[in-house]
Specification:
The chain has 128 residues and is mainly β. It has no helices and 11 strands. A hairpin with a 5-residue loop joins β5 and β6. The radius of gyration is 14 Å and the shape is globular.
Length: 128
């Protein structure tokens, strides 16, 4: 059984940086991709960033590209989300997900239905 635990969320000011972590436990043999999603109050969960496990190719939502970076540390079984130039509209609960999808390319990383495992979320709040 794969389990994920996110951490690192907190209250920051506009323009600040923050790094979220997602520690993974369990067998990752079937995992093909990892991603970050977020859900703001009153809104649906949306895609933020994703990475293919096989080759590290990444895919980002337009709203965060050039500001956010997804990365991983295989030795520590951890997925990171580095967030720079944070804006109030980045305020949300951020979720880490893992996928066992066999799809090709990177576009599938943005599809919530492709993910099999989720963490409990970590709150990020950006004050103006």
């Amino acid at each position: 059984q794969v389990q994920l635990v996110e951490s690192g969320g907190r209250l920051v000011q506009t323009g600040d940086s923050l790094k979220l972590s997602c520690i993974v436990s369990g067998d990752m043999y079937r995992i093909s991709g990892m991603g970050w999603f977020r859900q703001a109050p009153g809104k649906e969960r949306e895609f933020v960033a994703g990475m293919r496990k096989s080759d590290g190719r990444t895919y980002y939502a337009d709203s965060v590209e050039a500001r956010f970076t997804i990365s991983r540390d295989n030795a520590q079984n951890t997925v990171f989300l580095q967030m720079d130039s944070l804006q109030p509209e980045d305020t949300a609960v951020y979720y880490c997900g893992l996928s066992e999808s066999t799809a090709y390319g990177v576009l599938w990383l943005s599809q919530q239905g492709k993910y099999d495992y989720w963490g409990q979320g970590t709150q990020v709040a950006v004050s103006s």
